[in-house]
Each structure stands twice: as structure tokens, then as C-alpha cells.
Amino acid sequence: MPDRTARTPAPSADRPDLLRNVALVGAGGTGKTTLAEALAHTAGVLTRAGTVPDGTTTADWEEIEHRQQRSVQLALLPLPWRGHKVNLLDAPGYADFAGELQAALRAAEAALFVHSAADPELPRPVLELWRRCERTRLPRAVVLTHLNTARVRLDDVLRMLQDTLGTPDTVRPLHHVDLRDGRLHGLTDLLTGRTYGAPGDTPDPAAERARLVEALAGEDDTLLARYLDGEPLDLPALTAGLRREVLAGTLHPVLATAPTAPDRTGCDALLDLLADAFPSPADRTDDLPPADPDAPLTAQVVHTGEDPYLGRLSLLKVFAGTLRPDTAARLPDGTEEHLTAPHSPLGHQLRPVPHAVAGDLATVTKLTSARTGDTLTGADAPDAAALPPWPLPEALLPTAVRARSEADDDKLSQALGRLSAQDPALRVEQNPDTGQLVLWCTGEAHLAVTLDRLTARHGVRVDTVDYQVALRETFAAPAEGHGRHVKQSGGHGQYAICDLTVEPLPGGGFEFVDRVVGGTVPRHFVPSVEKGVRAQLARGLRGHPMTDVRVTLTDGRAHAVDSSDAAFQTAAALALKEAAEHGSVEVLEPVDEVRVLLPDEYQGAVLGDLSARRGHVLGTEVGGEGLSLVRAEVPELELARYPLDLRSLSHGTGRFTRRYLRHAPMPAHLAARHPDG
Ligand SMILES: Nc1nc2c(ncn2[C@@H]2O[C@H](COP(=O)(O)OP(=O)(O)O)[C@@H](O)[C@H]2O)c(=O)[nH]1
Ligand SMILES: [Mg+2]
């Protein structure tokens, strides 16, 4: 096993109030991973910052992340900063991985919204995320990147942020920013006057400072008055005010950074802000267990990775208690887990730490049962109550797969079991109707990662095959059939004759009726006929299981010696086949009720698209401010790629759910393409 232990000691915290857990969120490509790398360099954890194009960043450490140059999972970077431990949680921005983002928010006490200043607007999904954080009262700040690329006008960016996220009072910079000639020269802290980078000679930002002091003075009128009278600023009081406003969500600092510049301008200012004015786990006010290091252990698995040598890597957020080496813990169902030494991860490296106190995050290896999302409690905890799960994106993109060889097949189900234990967004289905193995993913990127992990982590190769829906068939009109199974040449003969009537029974499943008069079919062979009917219906007449029919046995003939159970079963099957030749067998396809929630402006496009999918729109309602809720019935066959199409039609803003309703007749020209189920 290669040595994955770094020479430098891992940062650690002895008290919850010294911790800062912050999630980096925002659209893909805004520079979250690059910023995390630059912050790690600034904090001295890395001697050199890697880059996303080179595939050398610490947070994107799975091979597929390097190849795609995009984060696909939550990564933790613990950094030491002025006596604090900052746990940066780099979350993927791409919609497919929204579950990883939610896991990061579960583990964090604050969110840094990373926005590329080159983008004139805040993407709608990001705005939605901001609103959701607002509802859960998660403190937020905005970090601007890409200031060095475009001809950015900071005033315009700031105005856009203030218009969309709050007001000039709530969304505001804490620094005077020297951005000239497409370069971030430096920052000057409006309160302390401390400079970051090398700001040029800028006029004293007295007006900006006065407005900030007014905002931070809060109820304390004398603070501002004294400043305006020319007294020096009461920095401790103002910093306390800043912290209070950030925690209350009434102030969202806006920070300018240049993470790719040689001096990583602004990264130190950001770390200072986190240490001075951001919440620690001790400030949590939600329903989760309070961060008491002396309480019994309560931790949640927020992410699970896999290492070729170390096996399963479980990232735990310790909510209460202190995680120490060799701790006995259990899952809510009573399963015991042995927690080995806590480790501090840094990309591929794991460094042992003496403990992880309440509020901290740590990686443990070799858990056997705990899945992502599971709660672990110390053996000394009175009852092990499960912490609530975090919201997950719906996995609505089905892909049918088949093992490439027998050797692959042997390993496939175990590998999928491991993957779904690690990734709660993945759903694996063995469809009983079609017999297909189906991977349900949140989108194509999630599917690509899942297939890649099957091969890279488990050595299993699969091929994707055409996805099938569970077709059935029925009789569209009544029909009669005569079944004659007579073989009497030599030896023991076979003799059975029966007449059947088949009628449609919409929504009624299957009924068998015996109307034989005069014992033309002896009573003890009637069950044989029913058995033969059931078997043939299960096989179907055009390759799909038949449903919603009433089959009536009307007449028949038997032979005293040659008739048998088997002969009547065969005759029944023949009678049904003949009925199918006379009557019209119709193919039924599954139809779902679909609910689409989307911004009003895309309603027309989405309605048009639903009709093109043979959908039947049931109605549209108001689904919230500026949102429509469209309800429709849509054949499942047409929904196979709907997650992708809805995403592009609605620019990533539409969501939908689906629920099986019933089977309904399939148009003949389509049914002809699915003759054999
Ligand atoms: N010029 C410039 N490029 C940046 C900056 N931040 C990130 N990048 C580049 O933008 C691309 C996407 O960055 P990445 O960190 O992967 O974004 P993420 O998806 O938010 O994690 C990469 O090629 C980075 O090198 C920045 O401030 N300026
Ligand atoms: Mg990233």
C-alpha cells in the first residue's frame, strides 16, 4: 500500500467554536474548485496550487473528474487559519450532482456563493438555491471570481447581485476593491484599513466606510456617532456587529478574489472573514443535535468514496460528541460499526488526527454497513435516532444495462450494491416485467460517472441496451376460439376439446368463468382449462402478458381414457390462439401521470413538447411565484429521455415527477415496432 500520509500535520480543532464549515456553491465552471485550491495554498496546506485544466487540483481527485474537468462529488479540504480550522466543502455545480451539494449544505454552517463576474446574470438554479438557503437561514456570502478575464465593471456586478439577492443594505462589499486594467490589484478592508494584495493609491473610501459602520452598529447609535465625531473605530464592537449580521442573514458580504493570480489576491481576505465573522457549529440553531463535544457521539455519513487500497472512505460530520480512534458505534437499526482512527482528507491523502470534536468532519475507513446518509451513534448513546436525510434530486433517467461477459455478470450485482450504498442518488432496478437491469440516474453526467465507477472501481464492464417499458396486451373486442388437441395414434392418446369466449374487461385484470352445461367438459378438467388459459395469457399472444380479459369456457368434449390435465391445458391454449386470430389483440403501454413545475416563461414550450410526446395535458395551475404546474398523462416510452429534454427546454429550471397510472392502448404503428416484448 502506498504511503498516503502527508508529512505536514493535519489541521485540527479542539473546540467547536474554532471550526468553520463552509460549502462552496454556485454554477459549474464559476471557479469553486480553483478557489478551494487557492485557499489551500494560501493557508499553507499546499506548496503549489494545482489547476483544473491540468487535472491537478486536490478537490477533484477521482480520475473521471480530471478527465471531465468537472467536480462530480463533494470534497473536503480542511485548512488551518489563524487558530481556526476551516473545512471547505467543494460541491459540484452541475445539476446531476445536486445531492452532493445538499450533503455539503447539511455539513456546513454557511455557504459561499461563487459567482463568475464575467457572467452578467446569476443562473436561475443558483438563485433558487439562494432562496432555499434563505428559508433554512443558512448564512451566505458571495465570492466573485474571473475578475481578471473579462472587462468587468464591478459596480454593474454588484448592482445585479443586490437586485437579485437582496438590497444594497444586505448585499455589500467589506473592502474597497482596486480592479484596474482587467487585474485585481488589491483590497482595502473598510473597517481595519488592512490591505490585501497591492492596492494602488486609492482615495480614502470614507463614505463607503461610514455606510458600513452604520449597518454594523445595529442598535448601538453611539458607535456611528463617535465615528462621525472623528473618534477611532471600535473594531471589536464592529466585528461583533458584522458577525451578528452575517449570522442573522441580514448581511451578505461580497468578496473579490483572483484565485488564479500569482498572489491569489483576496484569498487571505476571504479566510480572515471566515475566521472573524462566520458561524461555527456552536452557532447552529436548527433541529440537529447541538455541538457538545462531551455529549454521546452522533455523526452522519455525508459522503462515501472508495480507494483502491483503503476501500471504503466514509466522510462523517460529527454533530455531537467527540470521535476518537477505536470507537464502538451503531446504526439506528442496531447494526454495530467499529470506527477506526479519524482522518483528515486532502485529495488522495489521509492524515490521522487525534480526534474530531462536535461540529468537525473526518474520514473513517473500513466501515462495513453504513451507507451515505446513515446516522452513527456512540455505544453510550441512550437511543440511536436517525438524523433526517437531505433532499436528493430525483433519479428519472433510465438506462438498461447488460454485463459484457459472464465474468462481469458475476461481479455486477455486488458492484451495484456498493455503488448505491455510496451514492443515494442512484437507483438500481431489476424490472420484473421486462427482465431488464435498469440504472436510474439524475442525468447523463451522473450516468457517465456511474458507468465509469463500475469499471474503474469494480472492474465490471457493461453495455447499455435499448430500454424497454412493460408492455401488455388485451382483447379490444369479444372473440371466440375453438381448441382441439387430439392425438390418438398408438399408445396412450391425448384428447381434449374446448370452446372459449374472450371479452375485454377494462381495468378488471383476469376472470375465468365456467359455463359448461351437461358436463361436456368433465368438472375435474375445468381447472386444467383455467390453468392452460392462465399460462397462455402470461406468455401473451403477441409476446406481452395479457391482462383485462374475461375468459369463459362454453363447451368442449372429453374422452373416457385419453383425456388428461395436460391435454386440456394444451386445448385451452389453442382455443385462445384461435380467438386471437379472429379478434383484435391490442398492445397496452404504461402511462404515467407527470407533474412539471417550471417558470411561466417556458410553459408554452413545455406544453408543446408534451403533446409531441403523445401526452394528454390535464391542466395547468399556479405552482408558486412565477411558476406553473403542468399535469399531464404521458406514455412511459416517451419519458425515457424526458429529464434531459426538459432540462434543455427550460434551461435547467424545470422539475418533474412521474407516477404510474395505468396501461392504455398503444397506437398500432408503434405497437408494430414492439412485437416481441
Ligand atoms: N481566468 C480565470 N479563470 C478561472 C478563475 N477561476 C476559475 N477559473 C477557470 O475556470 C475553469 C472552471 O473552474 P473550476 O474551478 O473547475 O470551476 P467549478 O466548476 O466551479 O469548480 C477552470 O478552467 C479554471 O482554471 C478565475 O478567477 N479567473
Ligand atoms: Mg468544481
From TrEMBL:
Per UniProt, the keywords (alphabetical) are: Elongation factor, GTP-binding, Nucleotide-binding, Protein biosynthesis
Q: Which GO terms describe its biological process?
A: ribosome disassembly
Source species, domain of life = Bacteria
The record's SMART domains line, in alphabetical order, gives:
EFG_C, EFG_IV
Stretches assigned to the Translation elongation factor EFG/EF2 domain: 468-584
Report the Gene3D superfamilies cross-referenced here.
3.30.230.10, 3.30.70.240, Elongation Factor G (Translational Gtpase), domain 3 (3.30.70.870), P-loop containing nucleotide triphosphate hydrolases (3.40.50.300), Translation factors (2.40.30.10)
Q: Which CDD domains match?
A: EFG_mtEFG1_IV, EFG_mtEFG_C
> Taking every annotated instance into account, which residue ranges of this chain make up the domain Elongation factor EFG?
586-674
On whether Lyase is a keyword of this UniProt record, the answer is no
What is the protein's given name?
Putative elongation factor G
Question: Which species is this UniProt entry from?
Answer: Kitasatospora setae (strain ATCC 33774 / DSM 43861 / JCM 3304 / KCC A-0304 / NBRC 14216 / KM-6054)
Taxon lineage:
Bacteria, Bacillati, Actinomycetota, Actinomycetes, Kitasatosporales
